[in-house]
Amino acid sequence: MGKAYRIGELAEVTNVSKRTIDYYSQIGLLQPLRTDSNYRLYDEETIHVLGLIEHYKKLNMPLHEIKSVIELVKLKSTENEHVEKYVDQIAELMKHLEAEIKEIKPIMESLNDKQKELLLNKVSPQGMTLAHSLLLLFG
């Protein structure tokens, strides 16, 4: 199993509050192991999962969608139904991002050229990476 963390240790290592870790455990995003004395222990993979959760939260992805994506990532399976489900999740995320873009478009149009350029420079590398990844996946 590797190193095991109690909730306080995990909170300190990941800079995520104990309350948040507890909530994620309650809704099934995290799967702690229980000791004989009923302490919750979290493995090294939990640190990675918390990183994924934070990443998807920054993309404004709802927790129930994050949970589905994490479950699929954990499967690491190439069975058709799992691949299809994962692609469906990607499609849902893309729809969500498209809606976000539609909401921000009027705000972008009100910015001056310098402000627009600064924002586009932040988005361009990620956009190119996403486009490249989609081409590899579907190309």
Automatic annotation (TrEMBL):
InterPro entries: DNA-bd_dom_put_sf, MerR-type_HTH_dom, MerR_fam. Keywords: DNA-binding. It comes from the Bacteria. Residues 4-72 form the HTH merR-type domain. It holds the Pfam family MerR_1. PANTHER family: HTH-TYPE TRANSCRIPTIONAL REGULATOR CUER (PTHR30204:SF95), REDOX-CYCLING DRUG-SENSING TRANSCRIPTIONAL ACTIVATOR SOXR (PTHR30204). This is MerR family transcriptional regulator. It comes from Fictibacillus nanhaiensis. The lineage of its organism: Bacteria, Bacillati, Bacillota, Bacilli, Bacillales.
